[in-house]
Amino acid sequence: MIQTDVLILGSGIGGLSTAIHLALQRPDLNITVLTKTQEGESNTRYAQGGVAAVWNEEVDSYQKHKEDTLDAGDGLCDEQIVEIVVQEGPERVREIIDWGARFDKTQAQQYDLGREGGHSENRILHYKDLTGWEMQRALMSKAATLPNIKVLEHYFAVDIITQHHLGYMVTRLMPNIECYGAYALNKQTGEIEKLLAKVTVVATGGAGQIYRATTNPVIASGDGIAMVYRAKGWVENMEFVQFHPTALYNPAGENPVFLVSEAVRGYGGILKNRQGEEFMHKYDPRKSLAPRDIVARAIDNEMKLSGDECMFLDCRHLDAEGFRAHFPTIYDKCLSIGVNPMQDMIPVVPACHYMCGGIKVDALGRSNIKQLYACGECTSTGLHGANRLASNSLLEAMVFAKRIADDILPNIDHLSIRQGIPDWDARGTTDPKEMVLITQSLKELKEIMSSYVGIVRSNVRLKRALDRLWILHQETEDLYNTTTLSPQLCELRNLISIAYLVTRSATMRRESRGLHYTTDYPERLGFVQVSLL
After folding, report:
1. What is the pLDDT of residue 129?
2. Measuring CA to CA, which of 145, 313, 423, 468 is 20 to 30 A from 349?
3. 45, 292, 297, 457: which is the annotated catalytic residue?
């Protein structure tokens, strides 16, 4: 058993930022951060484009950033939350710079602000095309200087501990559900350990692995959302899955697929078909710089009309030296599959990229479960609405990490660690005899979601998905109840839960809005929130 003041599940930008803010203000607190692989492996690390913040107030303004966010969110953003994130964002960026993060500068030593789809001004701070990697590096370095932060690697959180584990009936409408910590699988010993805490923060990232093609790393299995949902936490807006318009098309296949950053279009890249003809003017006056939902649907439609397996991003007209300086990773990756961006158009396809829905939290990051907070991509804060504006995700995580820390600190001394929590009961289970049962179910899951719950949906497709997901759910629960736990089984179980939540939410939204487009209800209706209570 491990006891700690604050337990944080996840070591990306949300988790580590929260830990750092707590540790800086209260060196006496014990802060334990769990990660299911190594500390540096997170969705944060794979973010290429940058972080959006109003930096040059001579040409930009908070109002412009707010309006761009609201426009992308297609009527479902919480305006108060947008105001908070836009206003507090620049200070959070300055903090991470103070903690050691580097962003590209011009020769005049001013920050080289980029522009991405949906933004009306240049406001994206970036580090080449490795912004997430750089921010993750800075956070890890800062956390390492704070002795009261302990990072436990190779710990897989299995369940949030609530009154349910004390034998009480817990329902989703109960007003007093409490979190006491989490059970976690120590992957090095194979034992399920009990981690008790006064306060728990879920910062487990997204769930892109429910789809066949995703830019998310293999660890993005929706663990936090699934655990909180099982613990009767509130989840909302799961139908809004953002497909990034421009993943690199590689016939050889990759998991994850390689992302060609939106910043490439901000730099001047133009979307074209195989014949070299532009097409985005048919869909939006902003052309290649339209918001992601519009661009992804446009590419999907052009592929269906032409029968081609991909569209193309033309960068041949751009300055070669400047392109290589801004996008060295993208340039090298293209060369590795035989594409020279300065001579050839880059083949691109949409791929699952970001979950706009998740654990419902308030303006302080509090879930409906007491002593349980959530931060980052696993949440639904109200910032993104029906579609996330490019480069707002890292900003959101930093803003909410600080707000969570500020809410925890005045209250934590009045809280205590709950005693009498039972150990994990694994009696009656045996080692799995056939791992193929898990791997094949995962393949089936990805095929179901990619075929029936993708960029364009319909009632028939969604029903077919739900029917097949129910069978997978039953088979996997049988395995879970009769075999000893493995990371693969836990991830499959979580992914099935996420797939169900996405599909069920999509079924409930009888309109087309933002990232959710259905052929049965092509019109946009009024304000509708889809919560799964």
Report:
1. 83
2. 468
3. 292
Residues across the chain: 533
Spatial distance between the Cα atoms of 70 and 53, rounded to a whole number of angstroms: 15
pLDDT of residue 62: 97
How many Å from the N-terminal Cα to the C-terminal Cα in the chain? 32
Question: Is the peptide bond prior to 256 cis by the omega test (within 30 degrees of 0)?
Answer: yes
- What is the DSSP track for 346-389? EEEEEEEEEE--EEE--TTSB-SSBTEEE-GGGEE-SSSTTSPP
Q: Are 479 and 437 a contacting pair, CB within 8 Å?
A: yes
Query: In sequence order, what E strands does 10-148 have?
Result: 31-35, 51-52, 124-125
**Among this protein's residues, is 26 annotated catalytic?**
no
One-letter identity of residue 312: F
Q: Which of 322, 263, 262, 256 is nearest to 296 (CA)?
A: 262
pLDDT of residue 425: 84
Low-confidence ranges of the chain (pLDDT < 50): none
Q: What is 143-177 written as a DSSP string?
A: HHT-TTEEEEESEEEEEEE-GGGGT----TT-TT-
d(CA 181, CA 173) in angstroms, rounded, equals 21
CA distances from 397 to 133, 203, 432 (A): 15, 9, 38
Query: Token pair for residue 17?
Result: 């930022």
Hey, is 526 helix, strand or coil?
coil
Instruction: Note whether 449 and 466 are within 8 A (CB).
Output: no
Strand partners, 197: 4
For residue 296, which of 358, 375, 211, 376 has the smallest C-alpha distance?
211
CA gap 247, 230 in Å, rounded: 33
Convert the pLDDT of each residue in 39-58 to its tens digit: 667 767 777 779 999 999 99
Buried b (16+ CB within 10 A) or exposed e, 474-506: ebbeebeeebebbbebbbbbbbbbbbbbbbbbb
pLDDT of 530 reads 65
The per-residue DSSP string of 308-336 comes to -S-EEEE-TTS-HHHHHHH-HHHHHHHHH
**205 with 43: CB under 8 angstroms?**
yes
Task: Identify the residue whose tokens are 């992914």.
Answer: 495
Q: What's the confidence (pLDDT) of residue 95? A: 97
pTM: 0.93
Cα within 13 Å of Cα(508), Cβ side: 17
**Phi, psi values for residue 473, rounded to 5°:** -60, -45
Q: What are phi and psi of 249, to 5 degrees?
A: -80, 120
- For 494-529, the pLDDT digits (tens) are 999 999 999 999 999 999 999 999 999 988 876 556
Rounded Cα distance between 343 and 417, Å, is: 62
Q: Which of 490, 463, 529, 532 is nearest to 77 (CA)?
A: 529
**CA–CA separation, 173 and 291 (whole Å):** 36
